[in-house]
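TL;DR need structure tokens for one chain.
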Amino acid sequence: MELIEFLKLIKRKKQTILSIVLVILLVLVIFTVIQPLEHSTKSRVMLVQNFKEGTDPYTAAKSNEYLSVILSKVILSRDFFDEVMESGYRIKKDYFSNDLRKEMNKWNKMVDASSINDTGIIVIEVFHKDRYQSEQIASAINHILKVKHTDYHGGGDLVSIKIIDKPITSNWPVKPNILFNLIFGLIFGITVALIYINIFPEGRYDIRIFPKRRMKKRTFLEESEWRSVGGLVDEKYNELNIDKHVEKK
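>> reply
TL;DR here they are.
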């Protein structure tokens, strides 16, 4: 289909496009509303190594990257989870299920840890419905990394963890991202609508949420009756004017 023809098709199928977009947006809004609102607590820690004098900078950077990647994966492990639960922070353990699989699934959805290239910096983000619990879990993660990181690598005392950004919690819920979902839904809806009208250009496949307005056409008889009524009105109006003129004389 040529571009000009497709543009004409879009103009002709505006109601169908609008209907598809609105339906997709409605479904997305419902899906967004039923999700629990979650706060985010973000912090950053830095892995520091004491290298021997004369160590190649590239080797040092790669070593930092390697260890930071390992630790970011360790944070999501069962052993680290147990350490966080027993860290002494005020974490509600009953929030997690007693089932091992469900417990770890929730932990992996709650915590996001990633290393920044070869800097040795690990970004940790915790999501939770309760703002205070989000802060407590993030603080516990930082604490365990700082005091027990040697249990998860072979660097020993030559490696240390420094907290460079203390946990900061969002004032407002960040999940679900309502603005992003709406923008995504709008783009997705328009894309689906354009594909639909291209595959089904026939009129019988039109989709309408709002009923089509039909303009009533006046028949020839109605036109004749209207002219007759109009003529009678004009005639009566003229008679009244004549009578008034006679009375004045």
